[in-house]
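Components:
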Amino acid sequence: AQSVTQLDSHVSVSEGTPVLLRCNYSSSYSPSLFWYVQHPNKGLQLLLKYTSAATLVKGINGFEAEFKKSETSFHLTKPSAHMSDAAEYFCVVSEDNYGQNFVFGPGTRLSVLP
Amino acid sequence: DGGITQSPKYLFRKEGQNVTLSCEQNLNHDAMYWYRQDPGQGLRLIYYSQIVNDFQKGDIAEGYSVSREKKESFPLTVTSAQKNPTAFYLCASSIGGRITDTQYFGPGTRLTVL
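Structure:
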């Protein structure tokens, strides 16, 4: 069965500095991987997804993530943080065809300091 | 505009009462999902439905019930049997249930039991 670990429950960066949110997964097969963002009291918005094509995936708002099979990682990065990036970020692994295919990590809260 | 709507945004319930949360989508998606979100736990799957008139239990289905009489609608009933119903509930849909299918989320309903 698949699982997701987000190594940091809270990350704090200064505006204009790089962002790194870490995600490691466990999967028996070739998974699909997603990053979602959630602003307070809102639904989730897809940032980017990996589905066995290019290992470096570019998403919205300047975010990108790199799939590293040898490290079972899918870390999310952004070169320069903006105040509007402050939110909760969820890494998701999808493995099984049909049904209960999305497994969410516990989330990482990103704070951006002025 | 296509999307997923959830109503109400905030809901209050007395102990012992059943309450139904609405989820409607006009994306023509076959699959729909209900998740529960608690602080620090990511999202946990309650129920999912791949097609009309069919649905399956997720990881935490006890105390909840659903129906899928129409493709665009997937209401969730929180029954009095649910021991700790106060949470944020998110509905999602996807084109199908394949591992590569992105799930699109509604804005959520925050349920508080008084």
